[in-house]
Design goal:
single chain; 156 residues; mainly alpha; 4 helices; 88% helix; elongated
């Protein structure tokens, strides 16, 4: 493998690793903010009746959005399956007979495709996590303030 190809692969790996790290940090942020939001809902509600109203509004607003997110997740999983199948095909093709240069090109293509898939999956996870956080932030900070507020938070 040439020095240029090694550097290209290293750059792709570094970018994929950075995206993966951002994904983890976003996940941690979501967990922290979710705990704080629920704490605020529970602590700032003056009466059990008001808490029941807020929780009912959260459920009413949350289920349609949750359904939409599940459908998006299924589409994302389908795309990841297709990418995974393509990567498996490329991995098998690496061992096909041919010249050394052809083999090197197939290996480089496999590595670049693999690292691109990792980066894309991590970015998709970050986007999904941010949408979840935005939705729950909108619902919980607006006191379950109706579907319009939750819908605007979910549309992000």
């Amino acid at each position: 493998m040439t020095t240029e190809a090694k550097q290209s692969a290293q750059d792709l790996f570094d970018e994929a690793f950075k995206t993966y790290e951002q994904t983890l940090n976003t996940g941690i942020k979501i967990q922290e903010e979710t705990v704080n939001l629920w704490k605020n809902v529970l602590c700032d509600t003056p009466t059990p009746t008001e808490l029941q109203k807020r929780l009912s509004a959260i459920v009413d607003d949350g289920f349609p959005t949750a359904k939409k997110r599940i459908e998006e997740s299924l589409r994302s999983l389908e795309e990841q399956y297709k990418v995974g199948s393509d990567l498996m095909q490329k991995a098998v093709q690496v061992w096909q007979p041919g010249s050394v240069a052809e083999s090197q090109n197939r290996i480089r293509d496999l590595w670049e495709s693999s690292l691109t898939a990792i980066r894309n999956n991590a970015q998709s996870t970050v986007k999904t996590n941010q949408q979840i956080l935005d939705f729950w932030t909108g619902v919980l900070t607006n006191g379950g303030g109706g579907k319009k507020k939750a819908a605007s938070a979910a549309a992000k």
